[in-house]
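Input structure tokens:
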């Protein structure tokens, strides 16, 4: 499908207060999964056509593990751990208007700390939450096996989620065991394969 790539945008303009969101047929839609499902329905996408019920279930479990668990490990590592914050702060600061940054960033960080506590990731020790993220990555690697993509030799919608979360971990977020696990030869080859296929001319592929 033809598309235009935009910056993540302002969560305050998003229909659910979170990015990503898209404008489709003049309507703003939020939540990556809802976006994929609506694009599939409205544009007749065939990405997941032909998958068995078993494969669809596997895809769902993988996606939700990454989105509802691993995501929060990344969130904590980026925003709340000192080594991750050293890298996150300069990268995030430039997204905000300069006079706003010193005021907004501590507030956003406090919001993230509260969210991490409510979700639960904030209540583990650093070693515990990193070990959980490493185990999540091990499970993804096991499902991937020797396949080119998660469910075999063709990319499916679940690969979009796996790619996104893996790339976030593969980029530097501090030298954690989760960072190292995300850069196993097999997982690096996987994200490089997807990056080369979908974004050959951009910097979207992991460093
Ligand atoms: N599961 C959602 C997650 C969306 C999400 O958590 N977005 C974050 C940025 S990565 C956000 O916009 N947070 C702003 C906030 O919580 O106020 C999806 O895949 O769309």
């Amino acid at each position: 499908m033809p598309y235009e790539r935009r910056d993540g945008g302002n969560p305050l303009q998003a229909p659910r207060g979170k990015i990503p969101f898209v404008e489709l047929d003049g309507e703003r839609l939020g939540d990556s999964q809802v976006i994929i499902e609506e694009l599939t329905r409205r544009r007749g996408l065939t990405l997941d056509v032909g998958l068995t019920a078993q494969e669809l279930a596997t895809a769902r479990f993988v996606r939700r593990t990454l989105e509802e668990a691993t995501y929060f490990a990344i969130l904590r590592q980026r925003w709340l751990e000192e080594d991750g914050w050293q890298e996150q702060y300069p990268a995030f600061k430039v997204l905000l208007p300069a006079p706003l940054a010193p005021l907004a960033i501590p507030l956003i960080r406090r919001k993230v700390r509260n969210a991490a506590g409510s979700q639960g990731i904030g209540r583990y020790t650093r070693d515990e939450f990193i070990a959980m993220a490493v185990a999540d990555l091990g499970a993804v690697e096991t499902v991937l096996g020797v396949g080119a993509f998660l469910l075999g030799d063709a990319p499916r919608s679940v690969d979009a989620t796996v790619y996104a979360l893996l790339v976030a971990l593969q980029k530097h977020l501090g030298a954690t065991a989760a960072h190292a696990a995300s850069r196993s030869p097999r997982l690096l080859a996987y994200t490089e394969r997807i990056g080369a296929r979908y974004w050959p001319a951009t910097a979207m592929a992991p460093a």
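Residues 53-79 form the longest helix (27 residues). The chain is about 60% helix and 5% strand.
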